TrEMBL record:
Positions of the DNA-binding region: 31-50
GO molecular function, one term: DNA-binding transcription factor activity
InterPro entries in UniProt: BetI_C, Homeodomain-like_sf, HTH-type_TetR-like_transc_reg, HTH_TetR, Tet_transcr_reg_TetR-rel_C_sf
Annotated HTH tetR-type domain residues: 8-68
Natural source organism: Deinococcus psychrotolerans
Pfam families reported for this sequence: TetR_C_6
Full protein name: Transcriptional regulator
Entry keywords, A to Z: DNA-binding, Repressor, Transcription, Transcription regulation
Amino acid sequence: MPRIVDHDQRRRELAETVWALVREHGVAGVSLRQITERSGWSSGAIRHYLPHREAILMFAAQHIAQRIEARMLGLRRTADVLGDFLNLLREVLPLDSERRAESQVWLAFVGLSISDPGLADTQGVAYRALSEVFREVFEGFAELGCLNHPAPENAAREIQALIDGLNVHLLLNQITPEAAWATVETRVRQLIQPPTDQETT
């Protein structure tokens, strides 16, 4: 019988190879030769999935965004909406080795996207998707009477900007994961206060 090839798995393997090379050499240092040497694939096999370097980089950027999104969507929802939101924020901060690696690759692609319209669009779609998630969450808090801010959209933008800034600080080792998380949690709890707390104060 012919061997069944899991094409999705092979693409994931290829993306992870590109991520490793980006972390070691930067996006500019990724070449087809390096990918073939690291992955063990032939150049023909790689071109079967992704015909040129630009397609490889585009795919790797898209795949890392999809991986983070899938992890966020897979979070279990509970009656504790504030706790659920804090769990979501943990998925987009480099607080452990896996998320740190993702952030390193993500920011490398962000830098390249400034001069690459195709990657800029890819990064923009992912960024807008996260912005939409934050906006919907804060609008939900406002409807519940939990939001200590007059404008849900501005509150969401503030938290996203805080996350972006802390990502950079963490990758530059200017702040510890514990301090970064304390900063996020403190600000979120200032913005989101359950009605029961407000009634008893």
